[in-house]
Amino acid sequence: MSPTLVTVFDRLHARFFEVDDAGARELAGLTSPGMRGGRFHSDRQGSPGWGERGYQQRVRQDTIRHFQAVARRLAALERRIPDRPVLLGAPGNLAGALRRALPAAVAGHVIATARLNPTEVTPAMVGRAAREAVKQG
């Protein structure tokens, strides 16, 4: 099996792995800071006010910033060892959202997506998912 780069992420966390025949080796992860401030007003810790729209916009912007940071880290790892397959693991539909944010050079190497949770995943689980993706892809 050729070395595979795997990232398992959600809206706040991202873990990176290199998987080969010897197993999965975890690389340095990435954690984005949580939501800024309270639900309705970031600067007033949730006191009554304007409503839900600003809160939802902050959630969207924080998610976009996190995905951009993950994409930058994947691009840097890809430059280190170019032309290796990439597997994206995430709960729900987040893998598709990150795939759209990836640079073309990295997006072209994505072989599959998997439903994995970064707070519960083990290197053994990542290794199995990567081997299955390489066999199918």
Named at the architecture level, the CATH assignment is 2-Layer Sandwich
Mean pLDDT: 86
Q: End-to-end distance, in Å?
A: 12 Å
Q: List the helices and strands in order.
A: EEEEHEHHEH
**The CATH topology:** Nucleotidyltransferase, domain 5
CATH homolog superfamily: eRF1 domain 2
* Approximate strand percentage: 15-25%
Biggest beta sheet summary? 6 strands, mixed
Secondary-structure-based class equals alpha/beta
* Uncertain residue ranges: none
Shape label: elongated
Radius of gyration based on Cα positions: 17 Å
Total number of domains: 1
Helix content class: 40-55%
Number of separate strands? 6
CATH class: Alpha Beta
Number of separate helices: 4
Structural features:
137 residues; Nucleotidyltransferase, domain 5; 6-stranded mixed sheet
Task: Please describe what this structure looks like.
The structure is a single chain. The chain has a single domain (4-136), classed as Nucleotidyltransferase, domain 5, CATH 3.30.420.60. It contains four helices and six strands; from the N terminus they run E-E-E-E-H-E-H-H-E-H. The chain has helices at residues 52-80, 94-101, 104-107, 123-136; strands at residues 4-9, 13-20, 23-26, 30-31, 86-89, 110-114. Strands 1, 2, 3, 4, 5 and 6 form a six-stranded mixed sheet that branches. A hairpin with a 2-residue loop joins strand 2 and strand 3 (23-26). The radius of gyration is 17 Å and the shape is elongated.
